[in-house]
Structure formats: C-alpha cells, structure tokens
Amino acid sequence: MTADRPGPAQSVPVLTEVVSVPGPLREATSTTPRDTNADPVAPVQPAPAAEAQETRVRAAVPPAWPGEDALIRQVLGEVQRQVDGVLEYRVREVLTPILARATDAVVREARHELARSLRDVVAQCVAQELQRQRSR
Known about the structure:
Layout: H1 15-18, H2 23-28, H3 49-60, H4 68-135
Helix pairs in contact: 3-4
C-alpha cells in the first residue's frame, strides 16, 4: 500500500520562491542565514488595542504607495469610532432594562426596610406611652 506513495520531497520551496515579491519588500525579506547566537525576537512594549490592530494591518499589508500608511490610519480611526458608537449603543440598550430592574428592586427593598423600621419605632413609642399611662 505505501509503495505507491511518493517519498518526501528533497527540498521544500520557500514562500519567496513561489510568490513573486516586489523589489523593496524582497530586500527586507531576504533569505540570508541568521546568526544562531543572536536574539531572534526583540522585546516589544505592549501597545493599546487600536495601535496593536494598526500594527497588525501594517505588517500584513506593506505600503505600496506613500499615502497608504496615512490612509490605513484614517480608515482604522473611522472604523474605531464606528465600533465605539455601536458598542456604546448596544451596551446602553442591554444595560438599561437591567439597571431599571435593579433600581426597582433596591427601591422596593429600601421601602420595605424603612417601613419595618418605622413600625418598630412606632410600636416602641406606643409601648412607652402605654407604660407611662399605666404608671400614672
């Protein structure tokens, strides 16, 4: 059964051999061997979500023309504003009935506790007045 299958490939092509890469990008992604003693990953400071998203977009799509980087920032800014608006609307839409129910429950509980305290105070005052009336 396994005799019909071809053996493993002798060499596997790298991506730059399969896909044609523009000149400036080809120089940046040259296949020169790395120094094995060098640190392959430089430490990176964590970025806020919007900057991280912008970095991912820029890394995925290298600029083809000078204004593309500015256009990417502009589009990301507009998308972020729209997402913020929709998110705020949806959060308000979802939280409004929840907060209304919670507020009603707190008001009911506060009224119940106030009524109970008022009954206790009135009962104590009536008992004291009755005690005073009997002692006369």
